Amino acid sequence: MTDWTSGYVADIGYTFGYYQELNPLRARLAFLNKGLVCPNVGVACELGFGQGLSTNIHAAASTTQWYGADFNPSQAGFAQELAAISGADVSLYADSFADFCNRSDLPDFDCISLHGVWSWISDENRQIIVNFISKKLKVGGLLYISYNTLPGWAAFAPMRHLMTQHAEIIGSEGSGIVNRIDGAMSFAEKLLATNPTYLKANPLVSERLDILKGQPSQYLAHEYFNRDWLPMHFASTAQWLESAKVSYACSAHYMDDIESINLTPEQQEFLNTIPDKLLRESTRDFMVNQVFRRDYWIKGIRKLPNLEQLEGIRKESIILQTPRSEVTLTTKDGGKEINLNAEIYNPILDILADHKVVSLAELESKLNAEDISLAKIVQAAMVLADCGHLFVAQNKENLTEVKAQSDKLNAHIQQRARSNEEVRYLASPVTGGGIAISRFHQLFLLALQAGKKTPAGLAESAWAVLNDQGERLVENGKPVESEAENISKLTSQAEIFKEKGLPVLKALQIA
């Protein structure tokens, strides 16, 4: 009997995550910052879309036509349901990579994306994907690919192998993947408690295991317990992609390309002595012990003339999505604490505080008296974007065109929030992408649409939904039993929502 899963976990669904790096709109600023030509993306494709949330949000919130494939029929069914509801131009298939990549009815693509799947598939499937990129990515087209990376995973890889071995040998097939994962995690903890020499040589393994213990089983199953799991050196990925004629462009994680944040002056100086781009990236991965790469590649890399680069940067527009009072000047990236320069960031944040779309040219003009250069503005915008505070905005013409379909998708997701908290993102036609919104805030939005206006009215409406299902708020790990106390706590949340959250959602044209 043929195993249609090809060793990939299929008996538990993938998480309902959203990944902003898949938004083609985000690529423009990254390319402009590097002085590279970025394609206009009219037709895009995601391989291995999981629950299809990112694909559907990007299709509903932009004018880009999307295609995609995921071999899991349950996940593909959910994704197709979202597509039908929004009415966006998106075609999603429950196909294996082999079947999808051999379809004769697909167009050529301006952008092809793979989030994470490169690490979890066989060499046979990697070759199928490379052939697909070679055949279907247009000249000048964009490839986004993310994957687990060496050397960052080198220490933990043996432990992961041992855990999957335990799940396969000791775990009973009838007990289900969740129980097998729990058993493997417990086994690993007991092993480390014996203080093996492996742990002495790799002390960070214990810390990594503690992080995994806090992750949901859905995530662990797909990230670590597939048959194929291969962290890869950057140079190995480049070698795989060579026949597809794509060149490395830049990181999709903006802060990875801001060396003053990631590297010491000595490290920067050393990297600058390496003339080869690929060797330089490989060396940099050792400097930061890179665990996960999110990269843009291009089929036919081209430099922008300086004047066109400046003109392109100035045309870019941004919007602040975090209430100004909640943006701190201390943040973290990859576990490292970063202190932002108040003399640069505070004036920028003050201008953006009203949550209106502002072009970088407007910012440059307004900050001229503060002696804040365009280069500093761009760097600040990229840092704030990676911290989740700021988004690149699409043009007003596209926004008007897609508003109706993003509203339909959002209405459906909010209705789902009445019964579960699986989907915590809504589509913004302003950003062309997804915005994180909690279940309670989605319930408050539903209450507003039903005519409730006061925080008390929003709270009572949300409580009615929860109470019908026997649900209670949880505080300090324990359910809040009193109806009055539940409503009181919901009212407090609704007050904050109306004061801080709602103005932002209105600016993003979600509310």
Keywords:
49% helix, globular, single chain, alpha/beta, 511 residues
Q: Can you describe this structure in just a few lines?
A:
By secondary structure, this protein is an alpha/beta fold. The chain is built from 22 helices and 16 strands.
Question: How much is the average pLDDT?
Answer: 90
Proportion of strand residues? 5-15%
Distance between the termini: 51 Å
Strand order of the largest sheet: 3-2-1-4-5-7-6
Number of helices: 22
Spatial extent as radius of gyration:
24 Å
Main sheet specs: 7 strands, mixed
Helix share bin = 40-55%
Overview of this protein structure:
With 511 residues, this protein is α/β, with parallel strands linked by helices. It contains 22 helices and 16 strands. It has helices at 24-34, 53-60, 73-86, 97-101, 123-136, 157-169, 176-193, 197-201, 204-213, 217-224, 234-241, 259-262, 265-271, 277-288, 306-315, 342-352, 360-366, 374-386, 396-416, 439-449, 455-468, 483-507, and strands at residues 43-47, 65-69, 90-93, 109-115, 137-148, 247-251, 292-298, 317-320, 330-333, 336-339, 358-359, 390-393, 425-428, 433-436, 474-475, 478-479. It has a 7-stranded mixed beta sheet. A hairpin with a 4-residue loop joins strand 13 and strand 14 (433-436). It is globular.
Topology, element by element:
Layout: H1 24-34, E1 43-47, H2 53-60, E2 65-69, H3 73-86, E3 90-93, H4 97-101, E4 109-115, H5 123-136, E5 137-148, H6 157-169, H7 176-193, H8 197-201, H9 204-213, H10 217-224, H11 234-241, E6 247-251, H12 259-262, H13 265-271, H14 277-288, E7 292-298, H15 306-315, E8 317-320, E9 330-333, E10 336-339, H16 342-352, E11 358-359, H17 360-366, H18 374-386, E12 390-393, H19 396-416, E13 425-428, E14 433-436, H20 439-449, H21 455-468, E15 474-475, E16 478-479, H22 483-507
Parallel strand pairs: 1-2, 1-4, 2-3, 4-5
Antiparallel strand pairs: 5-7, 6-7, 8-11, 8-12, 9-10, 13-14, 15-16
